[in-house]
Amino acid sequence: DAEGDAIVIDLGGSPRPAEPECAVTASFFSPDALYRIEGAVAPHAGEQSVVDLTIHDIERVQRREAARARVAMPVVLSNFDDDGGDAFASVPGESIDIAEGGCRVVVHRRFPPGCDPTVSLRVSASETVVALAAVLEEQPQPDGRFEYRLVFIDQDDGHRELLSKAIANAA
Questions:
Q1: What angle do CA 134, 36, 95 make, to 5 degrees?
Q2: Residues in a beta bridge with 9
Q3: Distance between CA atoms of 168 and 171, rounded to whole angstroms?
Q4: What is d(CA 149, CA 30) in angstroms, rounded to the nearest whole number?
Q5: For residues 61 and 75, what is the distance between their CA atoms, to the nearest angstrom?
Q6: How many CB atoms are located within 10 Å of the residue 11 CB?
Q7: How far apart are CA 72 and CA 50, in angstroms?
Q8: Residues 116, 76, 160, 156: is their CA dihedral positive or negative?
Q9: What are 23's strand-pairing partners?
Q10: Residue 59 burial (CB count, 10 A)
Q11: Which helix (H) or strand (E) holds 30?
Q12: Fewer CB within 10 Å: N-end or C-end of the chain?
């Protein structure tokens, strides 16, 4: 993270730098952001296919359209389809973070695979967002619960406004 730190990188089948030692811009992707690194490369232990990347500057580029707020609120994932073999499933849990375009939740048991959940997110004592979502990622937890990254689909009923207000209140 600090200026001057070096990372050893095996270039594999990637093109080699034009010069053995030169300035570079490297991009690294993670689930939460793109990291753009300005630095310099030099051969590692005399090998051309393995380099030391010395970091001069790191820029974090947000990949989401809207920032997420870390806030725990009651959530229920429901399945009204019969595609997964369950005519109806309702799995309670709580949010980990929320944004206008999606949320990350942890629920008490696995949601039926292959189904798009209808998310009921209690954003205040008097308001609940109900929206169809798509599962971007499913992660089993050591305690038997499941974490899901969800993106909302077809938010036409004022959901963005309610979520924006909930995010502002959480900040």
A1: 30
A2: 51
A3: 5
A4: 14
A5: 29
A6: 15
A7: 44
A8: positive
A9: 40
A10: 12
A11: none
A12: N
